[in-house]
Amino acid sequence: MPSLEEELFPSTPGKFKDRNRHFHRCFASTSTMFLWALFLIALTASYLCFQSFMDSGNRYFTSTWGGHHWERNVINSAQIRRSHGGMSVLVTGAAGFVGSHVSLALKKRGDGVVGIDNFNNYYDPSLKKARKNLLTQNSIFIVDGDINDSKLLVKLFDIARFTHVMHLAAQAGVRYAMENPGSYIHSNIAGLVSLLEVCKNSNPQPAIVWASSSSVYGLNEKVPFSESDRTDQPASLYAATKKAGEEITHTYNHIYGLSITGLRFFTVYGPWGRPDMAYFSFTRNILQGKPITVYRGKNRVDLARDFTYIDDVVKGCIGSLDTSGKSTGSGGKKRGPAPYRIFNLGNTSPVTVPMMVAMLEKHLKVKAKKNFVVMPGNGDVPFTHANISSARKEFGYKPTTDLQTGLKKFVKWYLSYYGYDQGKL
Ligand SMILES: *[C@@H]1O[C@H](CO)[C@@H](O)[C@H](O)[C@H]1NC(C)=O
Ligand SMILES: *[C@@H]1O[C@H](CO)[C@@H](O)[C@H](O)[C@H]1NC(C)=O
């Protein structure tokens, strides 16, 4: 039987010495080979480890949701902290103007609130971050995510039992639609449907209150605007997507028994407002000594808006949530008729844009440089005026802040937020 050595290194007769030397050399080179192999294996293994570390690292850093800590935050924030009639509300667009105010108001009375916001850069995201900080200080957790991310929504409904959804996330603005039409489809159509899909599948289904818009009245000329007036003549893509939202929510109410309340907001303004709105950008320009563009209708008719103060709108949102009634479906199936409601949330006293500017001048103690320009036919409507009798009847909606008072509060906030020395004004 050949020895192991012979088996590996077949003998060459008469060359024992050589063979022996050969053997040693070979042995040395095998062990080198072995070491090399070991080295390569180690290298591959560490490369694979590194790869998977990078993968999970990427997942961890690019997607901002998930994980034990994140789930605890969601659960805590969704917790109801009052004994009677408390609700647990998912607020979409919670870092937005109306969203942040509604979240704070709900939390204050002990309701559970979880926010979601994608912090897009349609306007200065630092303002959204600042609103988020305000909410965080009040123990409200905001998820950084998109409502068109179904996986995220499913996860949220998995870990928190939301009784209500306050859907305020949207792409706003009428003129921006000509620049970025896709954004309106993404948020106001695709995002809405993805949210409704998750709501209809969840058990129990939440009741949904969401932001439509007074812009759905479009070219309607009958004043004041009542909910039953025609809304089939939108003047902007924004208005069209909001109108589509009313129709889409209607089908989810009809087919799946979701309780739906649509709120047609009329030019909401106030502290922490949206920088893309006229009263806000006018304030900025007036303070910086820059001219402002004031649009006028045909025949020099001033535009007028039914400006509605944020606190009044918040009361309307909460009144809607409190009276929403239950969704009736379960397991994705309708079990009976559910409420479908639409309300105007306005102020019922339109003010012309030049009058609004005069109020700002008074509060800022600076004269505005006004450029009057004929309104281009690109989305704005000449006037808005709400009939709010439905909301008054249904949940006692009664706006109490006139534009003069509301703008005073806005200016006070603006000066403090942007660090103006209020003593000098
Ligand atoms: C919304 O999300 C779906 C997947 O859930 C995706 O297919 C679609 O492209 C998204 N829509 C928009 C407009 O971003
Ligand atoms: C306001 O709307 C109600 C229905 O909600 C209607 O009965 C009333 O006539 C409207 N008022 C005006 C002034 O149009």
UniProtKB/TrEMBL annotation:
Segments crossing the lipid bilayer: 26-48
InterPro entries documented for this protein: Epimerase_deHydtase (IPR001509), NAD(P)-bd_dom_sf (IPR036291)
Domain of life the protein comes from: Eukaryota
Keyword NAD: yes
Alphabetized UniProt keyword annotations: Isomerase, Membrane, NAD, Transmembrane, Transmembrane helix
Keyword Coiled coil in record: no
Domain NAD-dependent epimerase/dehydratase: 89-323
Family statement drawn from the similarity comment of this UniProt entry: Belongs to the NAD(P)-dependent epimerase/dehydratase family.
Protein name: UDP-glucuronate 4-epimerase 1
